[in-house]
Design goal:
The chain is built from twelve helices and 14 strands. The chain is an alpha+beta fold and 367 residues long. The strands form four sheets. Strands 3-2-14-13-12 form a five-stranded antiparallel β-sheet, sandwiched between helices. A four-stranded antiparallel β-sheet has the order 1-5-6-4. Strands 9-10-11 form a three-stranded antiparallel β-sheet. The longest helix has 15 residues. The radius of gyration is 19 Å and the shape is globular.
């Protein structure tokens, strides 16, 4: 996903597997017009800042009602945007569902139970578990950098043969030794779900989440190529902002919709929980990104949690109750349980804003 090349319109250039909308869309009533407080941007209007930062959609759902829904830079309600790594949180949900349905025994299964070809290359792959992949602590060598077309993330994004790239993965160090954000780990998770269930990942999302949650629009998942048809599990669910908000609402309500438990409630709790790990530093112990900066975040099972504001991370684990899915170029599904709120931001670029802070501020202003 080299920054010079990737864009939220990339789905137009990829092969895509269809994800059908629900036969009947779930109710997401509009309360647009009710007073909504937005952050002060030093005299600039909220809309001007959204336009300037490359935002294409922002949706705020409070108490199950859409209280703010705005589109910018030529986008509208039915415009398709791509999730980039927001898809990682969807893959996490599908892992939990596959475990509930008995296709995967436990998060502590070795990944080679489902991907035996990895053990042929290196027996050390047998030591890596699904839990290690969820936590981005696999020890598999993977260069995430988006600034180079030669980085592993870019190669995985552009290759017509993801299976070949998976076979070429190598071990860098022992599992659980350190946190390292890796799209390769999520690609393995998605491939495991597909192998374990015997169902293509896009269809599994359709059957287990997209239709049960009442998605109003068709969606798609980008593939490596028509020939091999392996989904880019680490990214690239292409949908509309309101349906991404529905997915956030599903997690806000502990995986339940209309009395139906779509994602196991315990999985929702486990997958957004901050845990202590081995490690000599606070960052390593708590899977923390950018410690002691405004951008600090704890990485859970393909979800992030921000720290409590104004609490130095060296004091220990201080996650807020909020959690969020994040994608390249500033795609966000932000869940604020205390405010009963979901906020979606999608954009053409990240822009000069720290979005977890902005979205968290919107939640606090409207509690």
């Amino acid at each position: 996903m080299a920054q010079q090349q990737s864009a939220i319109t990339d789905h137009r250039h990829f092969q895509n597997a269809a994800i059908a909308r629900a036969p009947k869309a779930s109710l997401l009533p509009s309360a647009v017009g009710e007073p909504v407080q937005v952050p002060d941007f030093g005299g600039e209007s909220f809309d001007a800042v959204m336009e300037k930062t490359g935002t294409v959609a922002i949706v705020v759902v409070k108490h199950g009602k859409v209280v703010l829904e705005q589109y910018y830079n030529g986008y509208q309600r039915d415009s398709i945007v791509t999730s980039f790594s927001v898809a990682k949180s969807m893959v996490s949900a599908l892992v939990g569902i596959a475990i509930r349905d008995g296709h995967i025994a436990t998060v502590d299964d070795p990944i080679t139970r489902y991907l035996p070809e990895l053990a042929i290359n290196d027996q050390r792959f047998t030591r890596i578990t699904i839990r290690n992949l969820l936590e981005m602590r696999s020890g598999i060598q993977f260069v995430e950098g988006y600034g180079s077309p030669f980085a592993d993330a870019s190669r995985f994004y552009l290759t017509p043969d993801l299976a070949g790239k998976i076979k070429g993965l190598r071990i860098e160090h022992a599992p659980d030794a350190a946190y390292q954000y890796s799209s390769g780990d999520t690609q393995l998770l998605g491939t495991i779900v597909q192998r374990a269930t015997g169902v293509p990942l896009p269809r599994y999302l359709q059957e287990k989440i997209w239709q049960p949650m009442g998605a109003a629009y068709d969606a798609s998942w980008s593939l490596d190529s028509q020939q091999s048809a392996l989904p880019k599990a680490f990214c690239c669910v292409n949908a509309r902002a309101l349906d991404f908000a529905r997915f956030g609402q599903l997690y806000l309500k502990d995986g339940s919709f209309n009395g139906q438990q779509i994602v196991p409630a315990e999985w929702v709790r486990q997958s957004t929980q901050v845990r202590e790990h081995a490690g000599s530093s606070a960052a390593s112990r708590w899977n923390m990104e950018a410690p002691n900066t405004f951008a600090a975040a704890y990485y859970a099972w393909q979800w992030r949690r921000p720290p409590v504001a104004d609490v130095p991370s060296e004091l220990g684990v201080k996650p807020s109750h909020d959690f969020y899915a994040e994608g390249h170029l500033g795609q966000f599904i932000y869940v604020a349980p205390d405010e009963d709120m979901v906020i979606v931001r999608f954009g053409k670029r990240y822009g000069n804003a720290w979005w977890p802070g902005v979205l968290g501020r919107i939640a606090r202003l409207n509690r």
